[in-house]
């Protein structure tokens, strides 16, 4: 007898079983169907879906079932996004939910569906449904790790996290290569907790957490059609935490997972943290940080280990007039050296060491008191290679 | 005696002299100072400047002198952008205008200044002012080609154009590598005409022309701190064209120059024309076209000669709700093949030939009657190389 695997990721809290199996959706032959089942006693749930106006069939399904605030299971597949597949694709998603509902013994609208992979192609339904059967048969309280592996696409490592506090736990798994992978850019996240919490409390906690974590990682600005973040509560701990405490712990888990996404971003040689300080509003700080994070000239400069503050300032200048700041007051520091002061040349740029993988940029707008940090990657040859050679 | 060079570019119209000289601003030792002088009898002028909130010293100078609607000369330098150089940098621009004013015998505020090169470094003023002297001495009605060469940075070819109609001519020169070059991304354009036109007429003609030409080429969305487009009239033809006719001819010259910019975009292997049709408003069409033009996943797909309509649709979906369209109604054609119909798989993608340098995308929103075309390039290994290896 071997020791049972530790209960990780979505299985870290009590009241959840999971599985990851290989249904043959991916040419690579690696696991591609994951199932997460809430064994209760509670089944409250919340979710945040992509802001892209072009939404995949599973996202449309989740949008339809989430308002009820109740989920008993989540079935996820890699190997196909089921996006831009029309009514037939939506029917495939419904059939998947119905299959899992029958296997788990719940109603179809208690089953969320998430998919990731190439856009524009139907899923091989026979294989997927057989995969659902296999996953249901493999469900285990120790299945968290297998489920995290089954949702990987271009990820190089599975991503799980959990935080336990005062008798209750929040766990989770994530996939996605920081938006650096083409049709595979999708970020899928399933969070679980055994805390007792109503759907409304879960919803506000999840929105507060995603706003400062997943919403602030931006590798290439290419929002996916399939992004899905779900939070399920089993209430199995019997503990009903203060909503503030719940939000704090959910945020900690999301921060951990978001960091793992950026760290695993495809083709990246740098993890860049862009901290915007002294903005009038937090939204202003995010807007400026995002403008810099998405600027190809800034991103290529970091790939070249060039502390090119001029490109950073030029990127800051592209934000519209609603963001208050005086270009002649802006300071920029790269890895601790203030190479731009008052919108002009500052300290000696040769003092900047950009050899480490992690880079830290501080942009001081000198306009207010608010701060926000946006995390991104550099733009490398590997990014171009993986996104152009990627075969459809 | 050799035959005189043809009067090209800014010297195509009557009433202009130009020169291009080597002042030693560029390590390459290639020509780097250009001078364009209007010999009258009229001196009306108009200009359009960068929308970036971080503006270079010469842009601030032009913003100050353009409202008078009168220019007698334009001095341009490559080898340094004079951006983010503070008050000292602005003083350098003023000194340059004053030097040229003295040489040409006009007032400093009748001299526009434009610079392009690295951001954040002072210009070597002794060399630049000596270059102004040399350029003034070299002024000639045959200097249009030399001036066009002197403003080149990463451009591989000088860019000039002219159109003659009913006794009057519009000419021009441009530099810029379609925003694909880092600190050197700046687009500088000087247009000249011997048509008789008031400054207000020139201004409206220039704004109408740039709106549908230079404003619709977008290689990487990285707006420069130095972008400058000027239009000077000598009135030497004695012909006062109808404003509509003037606008049409200025637009033709701008279209020609904009096409040359995209064709010479650094690192590009594809020239991509994104035509958005059946939008509710022309602005909507431009917004959608620009979202696709700036999407790195779309741009890398074209580099990989992959007709990935899913990435195009996902990019369209990133525009905000102010742009009216139904994702399930969108059709996408690449090089004549409608590979996406009704937001889903359309005709056989294998019929798409992406081997030619020119690619044509049509996005049919089925929402209205308006159309716009945005032109861009692919995202290639050479782009990453040239923008990361670029030494500051």
From TrEMBL, chains A, B:
GO cellular component terms attached to this protein's record: cytoplasm
Classification via NCBIfam families: ArgJ, PRK05388.1
Top-level EC class as recorded in UniProt: transferase
Gene3D superfamilies: ArgJ beta chain, C-terminal domain, L-amino peptidase D-ALA esterase/amidase
Lineage: Bacteria, Bacillati, Actinomycetota, Actinomycetes, Nakamurellales
Annotated compartments: Cytoplasm
Species name: Nakamurella endophytica
Protein purpose: Catalyzes two activities which are involved in the cyclic version of arginine biosynthesis: the synthesis of N-acetylglutamate from glutamate and acetyl-CoA as the acetyl donor, and of ornithine by transacetylation between N(2)-acetylornithine and glutamate.
Family as reported in the entry's similarity comment: Belongs to the ArgJ family.
A Pfam family that the UniProt record links to this protein: ArgJ
Enzyme Commission number: 2.3.1.35, 2.3.1.1
Protein name: Arginine biosynthesis bifunctional protein ArgJ
Site, as annotated: Cleavage: 185-186
Catalysed reactions listed for this entry: L-glutamate + acetyl-CoA = N-acetyl-L-glutamate + CoA + H(+); N(2)-acetyl-L-ornithine + L-glutamate = N-acetyl-L-glutamate + L-ornithine
Major site of localization recorded for this protein: cytoplasm
UniProt subunit comment: Heterotetramer of two alpha and two beta chains.
Site entry (Involved in the stabilization of negative charge on the oxyanion by the formation of the oxyanion hole), positions: 116-117
């Amino acid at each position: 007898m071997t020791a049972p695997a530790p209960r990780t990721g979505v299985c870290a809290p009590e009241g959840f079983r999971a599985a990851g199996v290989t249904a043959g959706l991916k040419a690579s032959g690696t696991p591609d169907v994951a199932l997460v089942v809430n064994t209760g006693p509670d089944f409250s749930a919340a979710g945040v879906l992509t802001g892209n106006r072009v939404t995949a069939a599973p996202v449309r399904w989740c949008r339809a079932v989430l308002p009820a605030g109740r989920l008993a299971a989540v079935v996820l597949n890699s190997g196909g996004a089921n996006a831009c597949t029309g009514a037939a694709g939506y029917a495939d998603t419904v059939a998947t939910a119905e299959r899992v509902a029958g296997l788990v013994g719940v109603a179809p609208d208690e089953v969320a569906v998430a998919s990731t992979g190439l856009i524009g192609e139907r899923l091989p339904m026979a294989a997927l449904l057989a995969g659902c059967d296999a996953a249901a048969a493999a469900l285990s309280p120790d299945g968290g790790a297998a489920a995290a592996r089954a949702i990987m696409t271009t990820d190089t490592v599975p991503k799980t996290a959990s935080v336990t506090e005062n008798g209750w736990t929040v766990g989770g798994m994530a996939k996605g290569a920081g938006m650096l992978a083409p049709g595979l850019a999708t970020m899928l996240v399933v969070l679980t907790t055994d805390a007792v919490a109503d759907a409304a409390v879960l919803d506000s906690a999840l929105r507060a957490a995603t706003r400062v974590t997943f919403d602030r990682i931006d590798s290439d600005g290419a929002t996916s059609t399939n992004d899905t973040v779900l939070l399920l509560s089993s209430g199995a701990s019997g503990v009903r935490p203060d909503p503030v405490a719940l939000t704090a712990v959910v945020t900690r888990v999301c921060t951990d997972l978001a960091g793992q996404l950026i760290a695993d971003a495809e083709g990246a040689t740098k993890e860049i943290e862009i901290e915007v300080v002294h903005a009038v509003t937090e939204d202003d700080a995010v807007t400026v940080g995002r403008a810099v994070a998405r600027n190809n000239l800034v991103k290529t400069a970091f790939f070249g280990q060039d502390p090119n503050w001029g490109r950073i300032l030029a990127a800051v200048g592209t934000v519209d007039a609603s963001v208050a700041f005086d270009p002649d007051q802006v300071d920029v520091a790269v890895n601790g050296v203030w190479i731009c002061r008052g919108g002009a040349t500052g300290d000696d740029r040769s003092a900047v060491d950009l050899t480490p993988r992690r880079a830290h940029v501080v942009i001081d707008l000198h306009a207010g008191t608010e701060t926000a940090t946006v995390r991104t990657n550099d733009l490398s040859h590997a990014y171009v290679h993986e996104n152009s050679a990627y075969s459809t």
